[in-house]
């Protein structure tokens, strides 16, 4: 042990360990608390056992991490981040071609996927985030749930998959934003030609601007999220009102319920049933994605201690991240379904005429038919702004995930230690933000290859679901009786059922998003999601086996021994610090 530890040993030993919220009675033997202890390696390199309390959501130090980020986000703000990332109208505009290729009845696929697939995943994720209130909750839970022999590789795999997913998500959203901006240029000037070079230039510009906004202080960022909530709601209400009025004024017949709920189309060479499964179920998964963002923002959330005597299923003030995840999924699932019904009711009787539109987004054609050029240009401009808000929210959450993996040295120490620094003025991880920006700009080069660009959407979903499957599957198998429980928990029976449904749905959707858009594809038509996702994961594993295993040992506390003692008390230090090995 180091000399500092020798001085710790000189402290008087007592029979209890003090925490920020003491829950252990004085006559309770410390050695009988093994089931309440979690092990972390401190910044000084010592292995530390940490006593967990019912109020652990208030004490980040009990998870072994120093409170560096400023707590400025309420549960409404966290909901706003997830709701903004989903950005219903911009997202629906991006996936409407795929949805319509299965016909108007694809709206049933949206509703089913949202409420019976994505919602169970969100509830399961909310339980993980509630048990581990930190930006690293997803891979931290995998590390805790996995058998001792596989803890590090399980957590490392989740880190890589989640990071791939978030980076691809940032790319796809800002790529859609660039497309919306260029669509406005097309509406304004029909002779304007959209090229890959122009699209990439606009993409880089908006992503750098989004990163710059994301580096601002917490006070400004929270106002941005609040503005985003109101903006997205305003945009939805505007279209819900203006589109039917414009359709009626231009004598375009409204489609009847039989068409809206029963129309099936097939604009692919798959069978009509296969096409419906592939293109009616996936759009909701692509749109209602990024709902893990409140989890990654947990270290900046404002909490209020929960009254444990009151049996409350979901207390937004005690579990703000869980509230943000669940409410955003429910809200976007129902509102998105209503928006699809509105679009299908107002699109006119000819699906072919819409699908053959020359605009990069076929929603533009619906607006042009019903509202005319000026109104279409105004709404498409607002959609572009909404899409930009989506990107700002996602790059905010992605940077927190990047900060967390750097803090735990998932990447080499020389880069990780430099990137995992919080700016003392803004209290934001500025270096991690621009690191995220660089990764997304490089990954965005895929837009120069048509199938590569299309794969960005699929990578975001496949990587996200694969990352979540690991801790959720471990929770209902190996760690079924030992997993941590947070303020939000459904109970043993319902938690098991919901997690089982979540794992099954995610496994099914991973297969779905790996399918190509055409049957028997050639080289140009191939879906490269499987190559990119598992190729990057294989390279990461190779790096881990050769080099990174020396440095990544699961969660690595950034608390020094002195800071840890200040947070949890100095008593019984021999039992708390038990290993001096690096």
Automatic annotation (TrEMBL):
Keyword Transport: yes
An MF annotation (GO) of this entry: transmembrane transporter activity
Keywords noted in UniProt: Membrane, Transmembrane, Transmembrane helix, Transport
Recorded topology in the membrane: Multi-pass membrane protein
One annotated Gene Ontology cellular component of this protein: membrane
Gene3D superfamilies associated with the record: Amino acid/polyamine transporter I
UniProt-annotated location(s): Membrane
Chief localization: membrane
Membrane-traversing stretches: 75-97, 109-132, 200-217, 229-247, 321-346, 377-397, 432-448, 454-474, 494-515, 527-547
Domain of life: Eukaryota
Protein name according to UniProt: Amino acid transporter
